[in-house]
Each structure stands twice: as C-alpha cells, then as structure tokens.
From TrEMBL:
Gene3D superfamilies: Periplasmic binding protein-like II, Winged helix-like DNA-binding domain superfamily/Winged helix DNA-binding domain. PANTHER family: SMALL NEUTRAL PROTEASE REGULATORY PROTEIN, TRANSCRIPTIONAL DUAL REGULATOR HCAR-RELATED. Keywords: DNA-binding, Transcription, Transcription regulation. InterPro entries: BudR_PBP2 (IPR037410), LysR_HTH_N (IPR000847), LysR_subst-bd (IPR005119), WH-like_DNA-bd_sf (IPR036388), WH_DNA-bd_sf (IPR036390). Residues 5-62 form the HTH lysR-type domain. It comes from the Bacteria. The keyword Lipoprotein does not apply. CDD domains: PBP2_BudR. This is LysR family transcriptional regulator. Pfam families: HTH_1, LysR_substrate. Belongs to the LysR transcriptional regulatory family. The keyword Ribosomal protein does not apply.
Length: 316
C-alpha cells in the first residue's frame, strides 16, 4: 500500500536534516522537541525506512534520508510554485484572456488605453483579440470563446450577459468638406471649433450613408430614432460594413453620416465634422460585456482597469 504522507512531515524532515539537530530544528519551525521527534518517527514508519542515525549530539541522515531530502525539497518547491501559479491566475496575472470589440469600439482611444493598462499590469497573460460585429461578439461570449467584449449596444436578447457602461460619447455629423453646411469648418482649416454645429433637422433632405445594421444595430437604431425625433426619416442611400468605409463614402461626396465623436480622430481627408445642436439624446455608449456570474481572474483584472480609466475620463 502506498504511504499517505502529510506534507507537514516533509517540512519537519527537511528542517531536521538541514539543522542536523532536533532541538535546533524544533526552534526553527516553532514546535517542541518531543513532538518533532515523534513526527519524524511517524514519517519513518509511513515509509518503512530509517531516515536518521540518532547520534549523541545530533541527527545524521542515512542513505535513505539523503535520497529523500532531495526529493522532499523538489516536492515542496513544486507545490509552492503551483500554489503561486494558481494564485497568480486567480489574480489575473497569469493564464489567458480573449477579448472582442466592434470596429467603432476598437477605434476609441479608451479601448486602447484599457488594453495597454492591462498589459502593463499582467504582462504574462496570453491576450487574444477579435474584431467583429456586435451580434457575433455576443454569441462568442455565450459560447465561451470570448471572456470580455467592448460593444456599443446588445443585439436583441442579452440574457445571461452583464453590460457595464464604461462611457457615453456624443455623436457628430460627417459631411463632405465641400458641403454648404461645412463652410465654417473649411474656413477653420478643417478643424471643428466649439461653435461649429448644425441641427440634425438640417440634414432631412440629405442622402445618408449608414453602417449596416447587423454590424452595429445599437448605433443604427439610435440614429434612426434621433432622425424621427427631429421630424424626418433619413434617406439611407448607401450602406457599408465598416465605419471606415462609411467615412470613405462621405469623403467621396456620396452623402452624409452620423458617427461617434471618437471616429473624428480618423485622419480622413475630405470630411468635415460638425456637432449636432438639436439632438441631445444622440449618444454612443460603450459597454463592457461579459457572462453573468462568470469572470476569470484575467478578465476581472481587465474590467478593473476599464472601470478605473472610465472613472478618470468622467472626472475630466
């Protein structure tokens, strides 16, 4: 029958072997000498061997004891390494994490900042990223292919998912730079000033370019609802699969669009960006999504970094 050895006995054994004396070993590990001597005998009985020669002035390892000492040290070192490893995984310092984001979210500097902060806090975590539309991100979360996802708004039923709002940004109009409504921007060298704004209603007769609804249903529905609130139904003449493609079509003079303000950071020539003065409800939220009641150590750490950075932005 294989012996069932308490790891504590191995620690006692190592202390006696290294000190070569029961009294010194007892002082080192903080127990009395008689119980320590008894525990060594328990270990010898479990193994069926003599580990020490009892000398008048100390303890001397037998050949079996010498062999056990090397293995005992290795066993305890491996245990300590394993414990440290699982604790680092639980703390988000080791392991792996899969993160997804929509295209509009990936272009927001907040997302870049979160990933940089996470990498600095957990450089040993294997990070996998995926960019796709909101619907596919939600499905990937449900199927446990992703741990976290930065999305604008959920698609349909978000049961089983937690959606935490990290920030909310304004949406702005994107017009061809030679559009009559963009005259003020042209005079300012293409830069939007505080008073460079138009009304959403002023775009009622324009041709709209929209990112297809399956790619970004939350923003799509928000824009349509805002146009209805402004008294018109937008004439959607072109649709694209990506926000960057939408901006390219605007730059080509094929129509106008409404985009999250963060996309104005894209260095696209031929586009004028103007604020919308009559659509206070036209906002673009950025959510962090994950499965309810299930978040790994690494995912929890990234969430903490996101909340921290979100709070910093709100204070600005």
């Amino acid at each position: 029958m294989s012996p069932n050895i308490d790891l504590r006995l191995l620690r006692y054994f190592i202390a006696v072997a290294e000190e070569g004396h029961l009294t010194k070993a007892a002082l080192r590990i903080g127990i009395q000498q008689p119980p320590l001597s008894q525990q060594i005998r328990v270990l010898e009985k479990e193994l069926g061997v003599t580990l020490f020669n009892r000398l008048p002035r100390g303890m001397e390892l037998t050949e079996s004891g010498v062999a056990l000492l090397a293995d005992a040290r290795a066993i305890l070192a491996q245990l300590e390494s394993t414990v440290a490893g699982v604790r680092r995984i639980a703390a988000g310092k080791m392991g792996r994490i899969a993160v997804g984001f929509t295209e509009s979210a990936s272009l927001h500097p907040f997302v870049h900042s979160v990933i940089r902060a996470f990498r600095a806090a957990a450089p040993d975590v294997a990070l996998k990223v995926e960019e796709t539309n909101t619907h596919e991100l939600v499905e990937a979360l449900r199927q446990k292919r992703l741990d976290l996802a930065f999305v604008r708004s959920p698609v349909g039923d978000a049961t089983g998912l937690t959606m935490e709002t990290m920030l909310v940004e304004e949406m702005v109009a994107a017009l061809p730079v030679d559009h009559p409504l963009a005259a003020g921007v042209r005079k300012n060298g293409g830069k939007v000033r505080r008073n460079d704004s138009i009304t959403l209603a002023s775009l009622a007769e324009e041709s709209f370019i929209m990112t297809r609804r399956p790619s970004g249903p939350g923003l799509y529905d928000t824009i349509i609802a805002a146009c209805h609130a402004a008294g018109f139904s937008p004439r959607v003449m072109q649709e694209s699969s990506k926000n960057l493609s939408t901006l390219s079509l605007v730059a080509a003079g094929l129509g106008v669009s409404v985009i999250p303000a963060s996309l104005t950071r894209v260095n696209a020539e031929g586009i004028a960006y103007l604020k919308l003065s009559d659509a206070p409800e036209l906002k673009a939220p950025l959510h962090l999504a994950y499965r309810e009641g299930e978040i790994s150590g690494a995912a929890a750490l990234m969430r903490e970094e996101a909340i921290k950075l979100g709070a910093q932005q709100k204070r600005r």
